[in-house]
Design a protein that fits this description.
2 copies of one chain form a homodimer. By secondary structure, chain A is an alpha/beta fold. Chain A folds into 3 domains: 134 residues, Rossmann fold, CATH 3.40.50; 162 residues, Succinyl-CoA synthetase domains (Rossmann fold), CATH 3.40.50; 177 residues, Succinyl-CoA synthetase domains (Rossmann fold). Chain A is 42% helix and 16% strand. The first copy, chain A, has 16 helices and 19 strands. A 7-stranded mixed sheet of chain A has the order 3-4-2-1-5-6-7, with helices on both faces. Chain A has a 7-stranded mixed sheet with strand order 9-8-11-10-12-13-14, sandwiched between helices. In chain A, strand 1, helix 2 and strand 2 form a beta-alpha-beta unit. The first copy, chain A, is elongated, with a radius of gyration of 25 Å. Chains A and B meet through helix 5, helix 8, helix 11 and helix 15 of A and helix 5, helix 8, helix 11 and helix 15 of B.
Chain lengths: 475, 475
């Protein structure tokens, strides 16, 4: 089999929008303006037999009328018109197609299945590669190429790869991860996968140097054996975080009507995760948490952790959460204890590991030397710090957001921060704005941040298991 | 045993602050100003032998010098001075004391244990009731009585009771729940519990008519047998949501140095939850989610659910999540299907249960009749709706926040909303502000809101189990 040429998909020199419209509330209009407004810098052609121009640019009645070569066509016409549009693309020798339109095999209707088979046949017979149908297509930041709904997808690219059978999952995950400072190499919403499928996309990410971690939402696979092989091979090189939709009886009924996928049994998928080292996750938040963790934390992390916070319940909660994942919270040496004691007020705290500083740690003028003493300890491999963003002391928190990454840079040991929302009220948006700003700043400096301790520890547990999987395979 | 008189604790006519200070950054200063600024409307006395006045009011050298009766004293002096302060309170016939000061048995030091025993003896010998030591004390909204750190604790009271060995948990939980529109009857941070303990507080909530649900953070209990009895009795009348800290080896070491509690084994506590019907939870967010669920949802809820959302992955996720907790997603009748079909565009959706409307539901002008058709269905007991708060269409979302509660009021069936954060960026705080406003508005109108589907379903599962517990005990 020839290797797949992804250039016309991720880096097309020209794009035809089939179904372009002047009305930005219509699918074809939104798609056209999405590319134009985001400064896609290749050639853009509007195809619409009922229009003479779209936004002042000439509209073509069909793809075949476009005078120059077309690398990719994005098809957004209604389902009954898609087969003809694809035939036109093939005749024009368009190299790749994204079909956003829904209404194919996922409807369960005879005509939907027939149309999908017809477009797959045309693509195969003409060597034209196809993304979709029933998808939101490609987000390729460096080329400002995206038709994902929503504003402000950055052109800055980064180390996260994303592939998903759900368009909603794709655009939601990218938008949420963006706010944490995560940037993407490519994000692919691939829907029914009637030509290119999960194996092809995963193979792309396996080979792509820029991609350091892969997030995936998968409902079903077309070729189970090949998927196990590609997933296992990729997983040895970089972590794959995968949410498998449809693992229950009700869920597998739902995937059939979403992307016409076969869900597969829970037992089979549990075996898949064990065998391939793919990291299982459920829900957008867990996928993103794991991306943050894998992107920030080193491949190998020792198991001896210190927990630092102002407040006893948090140290109790951390202890309860760390115990089952096999992390230890060893006592400090007498030397470390004395160093920390000298930096704290005489009462209201508990100098040990976990370290309860008493008042919120950002209130302590000695927070930097305290954290340095913890990080310097030979007994400790990594440090978990929980602090709040306070309404009444923002300046102190600002200092924290500088102190922790700088100690992390100096000592080389991983720091993990949990930064809970202190309030859910709509009256205190300034606190939340501050929290989000510091969170992004921490993550961009290599310090992972999680909303709660429970989420941080769940991520640590999965990362530890993944690292064990990889190192066992290397021996 | 005489019943405990909680009046001087929750509704004192006069309070002495022992350790009051002009410096609001000191514990005693913060405590004094917290009461004064929040318009506590009883008499307030400042006690500080080193000051002549506090904020323009006379300062007394000791409690005994106060010329009038003192219902409650709040003690915030350093640990070595507490025994004397308590002896003074007893001599003055102060009826109740909150000791905020830490540095007692939780330090593990001989003098800390001795002091704690001495104050417990003084209290017992004089019939003076004591909250703490090592706590943040009482939040009694109707009397504007709170020394919890942080601004803006409302005077409005409500149906949630809270009791906690951790001050941080207490103030965090109240502040976060506030933003969801939850109001409290009483919140009690009780620390080391050397006089009044978990049984006494739970007994108060059991008898209190205003309290409809009790949240609790417990590290250890003083009298296990009595606690099982009180918890079981209370649990039959109203749900108790309890986070038990220190269930692991590491955790039980941590509780010893936090509140000098004995953690107890996991097996014992699992038996406790089974036997009493107390609902187990881990972390502040889960405790609050369960409060929202119990306060909004009816005692009995049928198991046939409809899931409505724009997006296929969400319907898959809902199906996967609902299946294990024994909820069903039955098909609609042909009549319901046709009614809904007539209200939706011809493709891009999946008319069934789960109902995937295709585009986000708030974009549909027909959202109200669609949801009415779902709610009217005889096959359905409850409706779960997931929708986003969109950056680009706030007016539509505003309509949703009116539509769902009004259908809920009309049909009487429970609606459950999941309203995820669409972005984590700090650049889009207006969206988050909108989301929080609608969330509070939904909850205040009896429609529970959760951040994610996974969290909603976890709450539903626990509520169903609790309702089964109660109804089994009633037969």
């Amino acid at each position: 089999m020839n290797p797949i040429d992804f250039q016309p998909i991720f880096d097309p020199r020209s794009i035809a929008i089939v179904g372009a419209s002047n009305d930005p509330t219509k699918f074809g209009g939104r798609t056209y303006f999405a590319l134009k407004d985001r400064d896609y810098d290749g050639k853009l052609y509007a195809v619409n037999p009922k229009a003479t121009d779209i936004d002042g640019e000439k509209a073509y009645a069909s793809v075949q009328e476009i005078p120059e070569d077309v690398d990719m066509a994005i098809v957004a016409v209604a389902a009954p018109f898609v087969v003809q549009a694809i035939a036109d693309c093939a005749a024009k020798r368009v190299r790749a197609v994204q079909i956003l339109t829904a209404g194919f095999s996922e409807t369960g209707s005879a005509e939907g299945v027939l149309w999908e088979n017809q477009i797959a046949d045309i693509a195969r017979d003409n060597g034209m590669r196809m993304v979709g149908p029933n998808c939101f297509g490609i987000y390729s930041p460096e080329n400002a190429l995206t038709v994902l709904p929503g504003p402000d997808f950055p052109k800055e690219s980064g180390p996260a790869g994303l592939m998903s059978q759900s368009g909603g999952f794709t655009s939601f995950t990218v938008r949420k991860a963006m706010g944490l400072g995560i940037r993407f190499s490519k994000a692919i919403s691939y829907g029914n996968a009637c030509d290119l499928n999960e194996c092809d996309y995963l193979g792309y990410f396996e080979a792509d140097e820029q991609t350091k971690v892969v997030g995936a939402y998968v409902e079903g696979v077309r070729d189970g054996r090949r998927f196990v092989e590609v997933a296992g091979k990729t997983s040895r090189k970089k972590p794959i975080i995968m949410w498998k939709g449809g693992l229950t009886g009700l869920g597998s009924r739902a995937v059939a009507s979403h992307t016409a996928s076969l869900g597969g049994s829970r037992q089979v998928w549990e075996g898949f995760f064990r065998q391939t080292g793919v990291v299982p996750a459920v829900g957008i938040d867990e996928v993103i948490d794991l991306m943050v963790g894998f992107l920030c934390l080193p491949d190998f992390m020792g198991r001896r952790v210190s927990v630092v916070s102002g407040g006893g319940a948090i140290t109790v909660a951390a202890s309860d959460a760390l115990d089952p994942i096999g992390l230890s919270i060893p006592p400090f040496s007498e030397e470390t204890r004395q160093a920390i004691s000298a930096l704290l007020p005489p009462s209201g705290n508990s100098v040990g590991n976990p370290l309860d500083t008493g008042p919120p740690i950002f209130l302590l003028p000695t927070v930097k030397p305290i954290l340095e003493a913890v990080a310097d300890s030979d007994a400790i491999d990594a440090v978990i710090v929980q602090h709040e963003v306070s309404a009444y002391m923002p300046a102190f928190v600002e200092e924290m957001a500088e102190v922790i990454p700088s100690i992390h840079d100096e000592c080389g040991k991983p720091f993990i921060v949990t930064l809970p929302e202190p309030t859910l009220s709509s009256d205190t948006m300034d606190i939340e704005e501050t929290r989000r700003r510091y969170r992004e700043s921490y993550i961009r400096r290599g310090v992972p941040v999680f909303d709660t301790l429970e989420r941080a520890v769940s991520v640590l547990g999965k990362i530890i298991r993944y690292n064990e999987f990889v190192s066992a395979r290397k021996q």
